[in-house]
């Protein structure tokens, strides 16, 4: 049985993780602005230098890598969530199709498992968003640091 304090703690932790992911999303947008500005300036400057060509060569592979990792994280999270949903559905269906009224103990167990499932779905959603954004944030923030410092030198 899930006690109220544990339920509240899990919800609060997931909420904080969602807030942190939101902030990382904002950082990703800011970093993207820096990167787009710096790379746009390289393209407007005319004949590219060797360093410019190196920067151009990074553009597509880094995006493929970051979005590939993000997509992989989403797929793993979605599969895990689907497995949990099927297990919950099986529990409910088995009780419904038993042909009798559940005992108080059986109903209590189902209620507890349903609460645990709902909390797990909420926290899994927070984890999925964090995992999906992480590789994109890492690439954008790294590029912003590198290109932002190059523009100052």
Describe this entry's structure for a reader.
It is a single chain. This protein is mainly α and 153 residues long. It has one domain. 90% of the residues lie in helices and 0% in strands. It has three helices and no strands. The protein has helices spanning 4-44, 50-96, 104-152. The longest helix is centred in the C-terminal third of the chain and has 49 residues, at 104-152. The chain is elongated, with a radius of gyration of 23 Å. The N and C termini lie far apart (60 Å).
Which stretches are poorly predicted, pLDDT < 50 over at least 5 residues? Answer: none
- What is the approximate shape? elongated
Strand content range? under 5%
SS-derived structural category = mainly alpha
Cα Rg: 23 Å
Total number of helices: 3
Kindly, what is the distance between the CA atoms of the first and last residues, rounded to a whole number of angstroms? 60 Å
**What does the average pLDDT come to?**
92
């Amino acid at each position: 049985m899930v006690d109220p304090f544990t339920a509240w703690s899990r919800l609060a932790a997931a909420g904080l993780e969602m807030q942190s992911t939101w902030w990382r999303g904002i950082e990703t947008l800011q970093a993207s602005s820096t990167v787009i500005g710096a790379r746009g300036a390289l393209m407007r400057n005319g004949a590219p230098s060797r360093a410019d060509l190196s920067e151009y060569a990074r553009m597509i592979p880094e995006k493929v890598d970051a979005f590939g990792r993000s997509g992989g994280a989403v797929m793993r999270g979605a599969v895990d969530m689907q497995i949990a949903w099927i297990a919950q559905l099986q529990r409910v269906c088995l009780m419904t199709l038993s042909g009798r009224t559940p005992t108080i103990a059986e109903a209590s167990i189902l209620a507890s498992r349903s609460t645990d499932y709902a909390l797990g779905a909420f926290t899994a959603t927070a984890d999925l968003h964090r995992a999906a954004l992480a590789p994109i944030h890492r690439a954008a923030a790294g590029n912003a640091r590198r290109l932002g410092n190059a523009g100052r030198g």
